[in-house]
Specification:
- It is built from one helix and three strands, in the order E-H-E-E.
- It is an alpha+beta fold and about 50 residues long.
- The chain has one domain (about 5-45).
- The longest helix is centred in the middle third of the chain and has 12 residues, at about 20-30.
- The two termini are about 20 Å apart.
């Protein structure tokens, strides 16, 4: 991700994130420095 498109410190909400694409997106955003809230029908988790 380019320097001017940084998501570090931003908040990201991912729905349907219990597995598959949603879970992988949560991992990528979290690794890039975003605060991530993942929700699914089974509950919610926070990645900081």
């Amino acid at each position: 991700m380019s320097e001017n498109m940084s998501i570090k410190g931003k908040r990201v909400l991912i729905t349907a994130g219990a597995g598959g694409l949603g879970l992988e997106m949560a991992r990528v955003f979290s690794a890039a420095g975003a605060r991530v809230l993942v929700c699914d029908v089974s509950g919610c988790n926070v990645f900081i």
